[in-house]
Amino acid sequence: MVHSGMPSFSRLLALSALVISLVISSTSAIVPPGQQGAFNQSITQPSDGPMTDANLIVQTAGEVNQKSGAPDDEAPDADIPPTSVTAIDGVLMSSTVADVTGSTSSHRRRPRHYFGRLDRRQSGFEEIFAGLPADQHDAAIEGTAYLTYTLVPNSTYNIDACLAWAATIDGCVFVNLYYEFNNYLLDFVFSEESNLKCVAYADIHDASEKTNFGGQASYPQAGGYILSSVDNNTVPLTYITQSSGWGLQSLIDPADPDGYSLVFGPTGGANNAAGYMGFALIDKYDVNACAQLCNGRGIDPVGGGCAYFNIWRAVVDGNPTTYTCAMYYLVTDESTAVNTGQGSLVVTYSRGYKRISVLPDGGFEGYTACDDFCFTTSDGTWIGTSPSDGDQDATIFFFPPYAYTGHSVGLLGAAFGDDSLLGTLSPAVPLATKAGVSYSIQCFINTAFSGSTLEASANVDITWNSATVGSFSGFSDWQFVQATATGTGSDTLAFVGSPAPAWAFIDNCFVYQA
Ligand SMILES: *[C@@H]1O[C@H](CO)[C@@H](O)[C@H](O)[C@H]1NC(C)=O
Ligand SMILES: *[C@@H]1O[C@H](CO)[C@@H](O)[C@H](O)[C@H]1NC(C)=O
Ligand SMILES: *[C@@H]1O[C@H](CO)[C@@H](O)[C@H](O)[C@H]1NC(C)=O
Question: Which domain of life is it from (predicted)?
């Protein structure tokens, strides 16, 4: 650099000596990471965090009422409402998944078949229970996961029309077919002119759930123009006959939700595991709804984002009652799926799903070149680069005391503290993203190594195809950091920082579909 008032060479020497002595005096206590120095202060050592609160889940499952059937006063062929959330963390509610998560993407994903493909279902329906003889009053199903109903021509007991319609209803695995008498809307209003109701459900029900015997006053009250023939001006009450049930023998295997992969299931065991973030009850067995709840769950300050969910169906006294999504920031598997239920509640169709990170080895745990202390500028998965004058400004350490979890960790800032240039840690290959999809980049960063004064100038930029999408600066114990970016199909992620002795450690990084 050439300045007009350039200092003399001797003055420059004196100045640099002064700078060096200042640096040495203020950092004399600091042994750099490259020499296995210690943190200036004690730092967070995360525990495994809370365990599944099975008692609260079971208690809440006993409080929700998700059982229904075709309403007396609703027109046929109503749209199927989006999956609804009936409780979160023990608090009852009635909300859509989108409202709970503040997400707009759920609508985009709605058309997915949440139970799998239609063609597997079309021919598979069998009679699960028969209706009572035509001259006896019967009852309609009140069960979970009611979807919608239609009216089929009632010239015969038209199971064929009912099953053909069911095959067009996304998620339908069971229908209840019955006649409903004395329903004014069926008899005089709806254009179908039929009282034969075909009712679709996304779960399989049995005859023990025939609890709707009718008994509603549907016809207009006394004095009505239509009732001249009704003695005493009393209205006839609705009643039901020939209520039969047709469905699959078991629920269809769902396709994996976007951004997740199946870890285990279906089994009869719910996870009892660490890193538990809470639970939601939803109104049908909808793995996509659980995935969206996990994506939108928010952040645990110690554990970070939701990384895993366990969906299962609660059967109480033999009948489906509700559907649980339990969420975790730690990934678990079938080995912890040990909770088979309690009391009259039985766990069924339990599946675990792991959130897919497109970032390989975001915890640097693949670096195992030693078993006590070592470091490198590249381990094959990650590459650390320094500016041309720099020396090991981005490195990967094997040393459990430096890691947030596990044994290895990334370091930004000259490992020996011999320059204050910014290093770059980047995956060796671009991330295999989906074009146009939004990603959440999540990491833990620690800038506490050399104490609050020296670390005040710590700075880490998160870049995506060289554009800065997030940054972190200043002194901090392990801290969750998040940024979002849009995939192009092949994206270069990098962490850039931090001027030694304001070192920055990074660990437990994930790049999730948002
Ligand atoms: C068919 O439904 C219509 C409308 O409810 C009803 O008036 C008629 O009696 C029904 N026919 C049979 C055979 O149940
Ligand atoms: C009219 O109602 C009364 C009381 O409910 C009942 O005793 C009587 O039999 C009814 N009459 C007719 C014709 O239905
Ligand atoms: C830690 O850092 C603070 C502030 O920079 C400093 O005053 C203190 O001496 C340091 N302690 C140790 C043990 O290095």
Answer: Eukaryota
